[in-house]
Amino acid sequence: MQLEGKSVIVTGAALGFGYGIARALGQEGARVVVTDVHEENLSRSVSTMKADGSQVIMRKLDASDLNAFKGIVKETTDLWGRLDAVVHAGVIMPLEDWENGNEGQWWKEMSISFGGLLNATASAWDVMKKQGGGHIISIASGSSFRGYKKEVMYGAGKHANEGFVKSLALEAAAYGIALNTVGPGKRIKPTALTWEEIAQTPESVRSVWTDPTELGKAFVWLISQPTERFSGLRFDAGPILDSIRAEGWNFKFSPDKVTMYQHEMRYSMNWYENYSDTEG
How far, in Å, CA of 27 to CA of 4, rounded? Predict the structure, then answer.
């Protein structure tokens, strides 16, 4: 198994991509703490993971609550002795026109999508420094490259995630802490659909959605990499999954095998290789 003995926290694990990531990590031997605010949906995810034989515990968590996040990290390290990765998949996505929103809604979206990443990092930072490293991963989106109607704050949050990861990767390198973002890279179910709504969706629609557990293998691959290898880069799960299927877990790396945005990855790799503190 690729992640035997590693301990991981996944936010937003009740449904969709977050659930698939958590399940894939468990299937490859990771001990997983799955979190979400929706306990009923989360319980269903946990039941499936336990049926796989995975070692998993569930905890209710609002990712925008720093103290609660710190509590989950402490519980994880008290139980398993370490924390190898945090995957922040929690998000809300109202799909409303900007003019119909309000201040409370704007900042609620940001406090979960971007604030959740800040809280994940702040909560895991000292633990990962002490143990010599770890992975912090947030979900990327095409919204960080282009805009969409009804997704203004969602897109803003994804832009913020990218900027945070790219910059903090430079500071985190000294401690062996890797930061990355990973987009789906293939079509997946709409974020807000519940288990019941998924079951009611016609098969002709569901058939075009990629199994999120299969896409979760990309996170298995990334967490299994040395932390100094890829920090600061944005990946896409779809191309990584295709590479694993074609060549196995130890496929020969090249940007075209791991992201839909090869030019941007090559630029970032060159930036980190030649980075100077005098630039700004």
Answer: 10
For tokens 């990962």, what's the residue? Answer: 128
Q: Which two structure tokens, joined as six digits, stand for 30?
A: 């990771």
- Percent of the chain residues past pLDDT 90, beyond the cut: 78
Q: From residue 236, give the alpha-carbon distance in Å to each of 6, 21, 62, 182.
A: 22, 13, 26, 5
Domain ranges, ordered by start, for the chain: 7-273
Give per-residue pLDDT as tens, 21-78: 999 999 999 999 999 999 999 999 999 999 999 999 999 999 999 999 999 999 999 9
- The whole-angstrom separation of Cα 212 and Cα 192 is 14
Classify domain 7-273 at the CATH superfamily level: NAD(P)-binding Rossmann-like Domain (3.40.50.720)
pTM flag (> 0.70): yes
Residue identified by tokens 């690729």 is 2
